[in-house]
């Protein structure tokens, strides 16, 4: 009889070969992951060259992995800062090569685009338009990441692109109203950009993008321009939102705006609300007097004190400290009134008698 074909044998060989084909990608994946983790350890140890060597092996196993290419690009960029003059350009070219490859593999990842923009900026011969286009692409990929938009604004300022900077600042106000305090400290901040940011804040309010912070920022802008009534209006509307987050300082700031605007009754109400917020602790009458004094209404503090005394009680210690501050500003009449009240109730305390004597000496009595 002729040779018989052992079909089960061939099926077994085919099955093992199929399993082997499936195992290869899995092996490559795990080998690449091991290289990546080892490189991370070397990076933490600041052994950047060893990390590069490991990642090069990993990219051999996983040439399609954008993370490995991205990490290689970043490491070569870091090495360029510590390399000698002759090697710096070489490392930068390696960084650019790997980051471009990472971008091809994962064109929608903003962190890769940001790293590429950094390297393009440091690359010799890069033109301003090329650099700005790289940072613009980062913003386009991640329009809701404030760090990228602020970085882009910094570059626009550095390369004197005023028109685009104006639009970027307006966008910051619209999307990130809470960053007002950071943006206004930037070197590019001026009256024109302040108006642009304010326009963005108004858009944020219309679109309900953190309207509380937007109104607080608008209030500050109005206050910078001494538009105290508008500042008070915006700040009051802000405090109506998320009222559970209001603090005593919020109410005191609102009172400051009202006092500057010569609107006294709302100012008293705001201070009263602030005092009720901090009922657990001592009431700082010195701070409140300073608030009136700074806004040019120190003479009205007695009226406020009498007004608020009907709702809140103050300790004798607070009265003594307030009297001491009043003496400093030569508000002797009110200081005498407070001190006489204290010594009537607690004539054994030495401090009020000493302060009374100080007043009489200053008045030549």
The percent of residues in helical segments reads over 70%
- SS strand fraction: under 5%
| Gyration radius from CA atoms, angstroms | 34 Å
Task: Encode the helix/strand succession as letters.
Answer: HHHHHHHHHHHHHHHHHHH
Shape type: elongated
Separate helix tally: 19
Number of strands: 0
Major sheet characteristics: none
SSE-based structural type: mainly alpha
Q: Give the oligomeric state.
A: single chain
Describe the structure.
The chain is mostly helical and 365 residues long. The protein is 76% helix and 0% strand. It contains 19 helices and no strands. The longest helix has 38 residues. The relative contact order is 0.04. About 3% of the residues have low confidence.
Q: What are the key terms here?
A:
single chain; 76% helix; mainly alpha; 19 helices; 365 residues
Provide a brief overview of the structure:
76% of the residues lie in helices and 0% in strands.
List the helices and strands and how they pair.
Layout (H helix, E strand, L loop, with lengths): L6 H38 L3 H14 L4 H17 L2 H21 L4 H13 L5 H14 L4 H13 L3 H14 L4 H4 L7 H16 L4 H14 L3 H12 L8 H13 L3 H14 L7 H10 L6 H9 L6 H13 L3 H14 L4 H13 L3
């Amino acid at each position: 009889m002729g040779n018989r074909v052992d079909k089960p044998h061939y099926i077994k060989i085919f099955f093992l070969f199929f399993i082997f084909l499936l195992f290869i990608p899995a092996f490559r994946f795990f080998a690449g992951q091991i290289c990546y983790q080892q490189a991370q350890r070397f990076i933490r140890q600041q052994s950047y060259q060893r990390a590069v060597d490991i990642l090069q092996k990993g990219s051999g196993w996983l040439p399609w992995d954008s993370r490995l290419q991205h990490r290689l690009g970043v490491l070569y960029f870091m090495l360029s800062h510590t390399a000698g003059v002759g090697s710096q350009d070489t490392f930068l070219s390696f960084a650019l090569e790997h980051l471009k490859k990472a971008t091809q593999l994962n064109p929608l990842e903003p962190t890769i685009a940001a790293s590429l923009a950094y390297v393009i900026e440091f690359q010799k011969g890069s033109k301003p338009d090329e650099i700005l286009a790289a940072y613009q692409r980062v913003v386009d990929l991640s329009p809701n990441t404030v760090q990228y938009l602020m970085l882009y604004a910094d570059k626009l300022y550095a390369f004197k692109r005023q028109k685009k900077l104006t639009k970027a600042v307006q966008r910051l106000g619209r999307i990130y109203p809470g960053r007002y305090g950071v943006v206004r400290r930037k070197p590019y901040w001026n009256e024109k950009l302040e108006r642009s940011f304010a326009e963005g804040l108004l858009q944020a309010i219309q679109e309900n993008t953190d309207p509380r912070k937007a109104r607080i920022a608008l209030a500050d802008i109005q206050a910078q321009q001494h538009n105290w009534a508008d500042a008070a209006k915006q700040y009051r509307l802000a405090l109506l939102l998320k009222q559970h987050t209001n603090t005593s300082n919020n109410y005191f700031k609102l009172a400051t705006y009202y006092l500057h605007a010569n609107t006294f009754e709302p100012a008293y109400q705001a201070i009263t609300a602030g005092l009720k917020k901090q009922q657990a602790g001592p009431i700082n009458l010195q701070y409140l007097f300073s608030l009136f004094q700074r806004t040019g209404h120190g003479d009205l503090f007695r009226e406020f004190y009498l007004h608020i005394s009907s709702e809140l009680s103050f300790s004798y210690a607070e009265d003594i400290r307030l009297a001491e501050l009043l003496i400093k500003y030569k508000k002797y009449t009110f200081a005498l009134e407070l001190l006489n009240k204290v010594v009537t109730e607690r004539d054994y305390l030495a401090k009020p008698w000493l302060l009374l004597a100080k007043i009489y000496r200053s008045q030549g009595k």
